[in-house]
Amino acid sequence: MTRRARLLSPFFYPERISTGRYNHHLALALVERGYEVEAVCSYPLYPDWRPHPSNETLPGMTIRRGGAWMRYPRSPILRRLLLEGWFAAHVCASSLSGGSRSDLVVAIFPPNLGSLLGFWLTDRNAVKVGVVHDLQGIMARSVDSRLRRWIANAVRRLERRALAACDRLICLSESMRKALIEDYGLEPTRCVVAYPFVTLSDSPVAEDRLAPLFPEGLAHVVYAGALGEKQMPGRLEAFFRSVCAANPGISCHIFSDGPAMTRIRESLERAPEARFHCHGLVPDDQLVHLYRYSTVQVIPQARGTGAGAFPSKLPNLFAAGVPVFAICDSHSELAHVLTETGGGAVTGETREEEWPDLLGGLLASLDLEDRETRRARLAPFVERRFSVNGVVDSIIAPICR
What we know:
The chain is of the alpha/beta class. Helix content is 42%, strand content 17%. The two termini are 17 Å apart.
């Protein structure tokens, strides 16, 4: 008898970055394990927060999209509140129309309210698993204000209730698991760690359309992906400007879209920098080429948020042998992984004006190890810690007992 799995998340195929890509590959892996998957999601909206029409399908899945009518405001707080509200209504509507009959319900956090209601409305015998991408009660602290602290406390209460409704919680890092146990008071036996997994396509490499963006003779420092508060877009722009000013042999690139990217583009129009370039998001079929041209990729992480999230792009960068320059706390999980593997450099608590020198040190060290050697060296870690099969094993373990 075919088992049915229900995946709850606004972010799903054909979105090209972050949680949408993770959920897409997770759903495919569940289908390969014999599950009939129903994905309850939004029309593609990230990172520009504008719903885009889509009727694309995937084998073995039913995709229930909603929210095409939504118009999101510029305020990140209001956007998230509206997302919580309408998606919760969409989950309820899909549950009441027959989507509640499932053996397994996998909720991707955040958002929280829709997952909580989805658990309440599903079959009582269904196993309920949460995959925690961000702890909003922690991430909301990335901007310090009285209003933000109040919102963080309110979000934490809802978040804890939703997480406590899960039979099992998949944490993307050890520090996230520790926060769930110590800060949220959840049972240690319910919380397991499964790092994000490699999502590079297995399809043949498409024609290279990125070559004109990366002239030879320069080192290319790249940030690619979502650009929200936790990526510190203002500090990332300032860092790239200082890198270009300090070293004429470096070109900096941001590949993204959305409100923060628009502000950086406008800033570059007002004060141009010849070797600092903004581009749109890279399609899946061009990611292999992007990694090949990236001398270094930057991962920025707002201070104090390391336990709240773990960068899902790291497995792909390791698998491609791309060195990483991480702007993050020295005690964060990201820093620990990079230190353990020798996969890059970490700013830690150094001053911002020292970051260009740290990047220069990383670039100078690359002469000691070529890309293929680095990729081969990191391959055992990638296979051991960044496997989608490990995540699926953790999700279905309560059913297989």
